[in-house]
Write a structure and sequence with these properties.
Elements: E1 2-8, E2 16-20, H1 23-30, H2 34-47, E3 53-58
Antiparallel strand pairs: 1-2, 1-3
Helix pairs in contact: 1-2
């Protein structure tokens, strides 16, 4: 399974603002620490909330 990391808009549409293969790449694009991205995703998941960052998982069959 592969995945990408994204920063999305804070509205109901969650449109992608930036997309990268790793947290490190996304952090460099946005000028934030990869740890900040990871913590935001984890905190939102644990609290049942949404984060402006997300990890999107997909399988090879999704690419066909």
């Amino acid at each position: 399974m592969d995945h990408v990391f994204m920063m999305v808009t804070k509205d109901k549409y969650e449109l992608p603002v930036a997309v990268a293969d790793t947290r490190n790449e996304l952090g460099k694009i946005l000028g934030v620490s990869p740890v900040t991205i990871a913590n935001s995703i984890t905190r939102a998941r644990n609290n049942g909330q949404k984060s402006q960052y997300m990890r999107v998982d997909f399988t090879d069959s999704d690419m066909d």
